Structure formats: structure tokens, C-alpha cells
Amino acid sequence: MFLIKEVIMKKRILCLFLTLVMTISVAPAMVGAATPINLAMKFGSVTLKQEGIVLPYGLNETTGKPFVRIKGDFTKGKSYYLYDGVKNKRLAYIKCTANDRLEYNIEYGRKYIFAASNKKYSSKADIKALVNYNPQNKEYLTRTKLTKTIIGNDITNTPYQVKIKSTQYNAINLDFKSDSNCKLYFDGKMVKKDDTKQKNVSRKYRFKGKKLKPNSKHKIKVAPYLKVGKTTYTGTGIKETVRTAKFTKTAAPLVTKLTKNMVAIRFTVPKSQRFKGGSIFYVYAGKKKIKTIQNNGKKTKKLTYEKKNAAKKKYKVVAKCPTNKKKYKSKKSKAKKNYHTWTYPTKVSSYKKGSQYVRPTKIYYRKDKLMVDGFYLNTQKYDFSEFKVDFVFTSDKKEIVKKRLSSGPLPKNKIREFTVVLSNSGKRYDLRNSEMHWKYIVNTYKG
Asked: Cα separation of 371 and 367, whole Å?
């Protein structure tokens, strides 16, 4: 009986011993797993407002060395220990000179993993656990790596307002701001070093090439760099993939009937090809090609076509891309009547009192005569016996006719309409689709 009790007692002792051994062996594993409560109590880490914010900031004016700003929940005037997780060593005891940041001088080409704490640790194991502490996916430590690829004002960490776009298929425009010297890359090849001593200044560059094709994909990179002695450290910078502008077809041409056998044709060159050599244009009347026009970079193309019954035909423009050899057809257009109109109020009350006015309402052709319709208006307190003006009309900024007009007697607060022959030279202008303007100079008036 005594023997049985002794065996039972030994079994209980053995079970208790095994439980204790398991607890001891499991405990390090729990610590290694970075239990939030225990490690927070152990390390007393500084809570950071954002995950891993380490900003390469430039050169220290005193030492001439590059330094970083580590942003976190730091208090101005207090000191903190800074640790490196690459070598698992304590770097410095730093006093915070401004809220939310610590500043530390770094070595060129050296990698860092930063961790900050208000407690001092010496063992590599403690520092390693400190750097790797990350409970519930909420960063309590900075854990951002720094390498030689982000020395000095790196674009990825600063608001550089980089804009990359292509409005013409032969070029990509780059617009950015940087406080550092920068290298510009096109499809992996450095094409320019853009150096400046000015800060916060917009910089522009245009990547151009005859071999660029419409809607083609290219890689653009802007990277800050710093030269120290014979060594140049280049930043990671910002990379973007951008497509060149598409080669778009022209809109249907604007066709004006000058006579039954003559038309004026004009069309607008699409912005994507508005540069010298950007395209070749073929103008068609029906199925017949009537004109080949080389692109010289101007916005508008104009021509006059004279042929029997030209006003009855349909017209189109075919644009050819010189790089991919493709052709793009516009829609067809018919010729329209040749006149231009303006709209103005016809009530005396709509005009300022104490003056006289003349307004054209329509300019057009009647057979070979250039005509204008309009009205005179008198807002003076007295009647006019005569009101003369020198009237000038321009088409596409060129003067086409100048005429002196006379109102004749014009009572106060009255409007008188007129129709006048401006010219009978027979010369034809495109009044409908050109940029038409007018002006007049008062020659004389008599009350």
C-alpha cells in the first residue's frame, strides 16, 4: 500500500516537473514572438505618428555631412537613444530640438534601420528585438532603411510637384521642383544633369526625338544626386511611365463658297502633331487629291481651290504620320455661303447716353460687290445733321477694306439701318471662317 502511494507521488512530481520545463522552454519563444505588452514594458519605445518616416534632408552646414530627419512622437527638449538595426548597435543619444523630429548625421553609402527609444540598451539581442517590434501592425518604431540611393533631398520623400505629360507625340514635357542637383533619365539612359542652387524653383525639361512614335510608352526618371570628392551618390528619385500623345485625325475642313467655281478651304492641325515635320496633309476634292501640305508647325492651314463646279464637291483631309506611316482621314465637308454676322442690341436704352455709335451686323458679297449691313445710333441730346466714320474690316488680322461712311441726318435717341457697298473690286475673301474684326474712327459729326 505504501509502495503504491510512493509511485503515485513520484508520478505527480514528474508531471509537475515536466510542466515547469515546458513553461520555461516556451517563455523565450513568447518573448521572441514580440508579445506587445511585455515588450512595450521592457523597451518603453517611442510611439511614432507615421510608419517609418526617415527623411534624407541634405548637408549639415556645420559638418558638411548628410543628415536625416526622423519624424515621430518626440518632445522638444528631451533626449532619446537612437539605434541601428543593421549592425544592432546604439548610435547616439540625441536631444530633440524641434517637436516630432530627431536629426542625425549619416555616412555616405551606409545602410541604416533606425529605432528610437527613451531607454538605453547595449546588447545586440535587445536592440534587435527593439527594431523588430511591431505589435498589431501599428508602428511604434521607425524601421525605414536608408541606403546611398537616397542621399540628400530624395524626391520620393519630399513634395516635388513632378508633372510629366505629352501634348505632342514627338516630345514628353517634364516639370518639377527640387532643392538638389538632379539627373534626368529617358528609358534608362541619363540625358541631362540639371544643377541648381535655387530652392523651390520650377524646372522644365523637354525630352524630344525624331524616333518617338505616337502613343508609345517611355520611362522617365528624375533622381537627385550629390557629388563628394570623386564619388557621386544618386537618389532613387521618382519614376513614371508615360505615353506620348496619340496621333489624332483632323476635324472636317471648313469650306467656304467664294464663287461657284472657287472655294476657300481651311483646317486646324491637331495639337499632338503641331510641330515642324509632325505630319503630311493631303487635301481631296471628292476622290481627287488637289493639294499636299507639309506640316510647318502652324495651327491653321489655308488654301484656295478653283475648278469648274468646285462649290458642289465634298472635301476631306488625310493626315499621314511620318513615323508609323499610317494615314488618318477626316470627315467630309461641303462648301457653305460666304458671309459673317455680328449681333448687337438694337435698343437705344442699351447704350451709354451722350454719344454716337455705328455697328455692322453682316458682311457679305452681292455678286462681285462686298457689302455691309448695319445701323447708326444717336444717344446725344440733340439731332445730328451728319455723322462720318472711317470703317476698317480685317480678315485674319489683315486689312481687307477701308470705307468712309456717312449717316446723314440722325435724330436724337434714334437708330437708322444702312446697307453700303464696301468694295466692287471683285476680290474674294473668306468671310465665313476667317477671323473677322472691325473698327471705326470718327471722322466728323455735326449737330
From this structure: 10
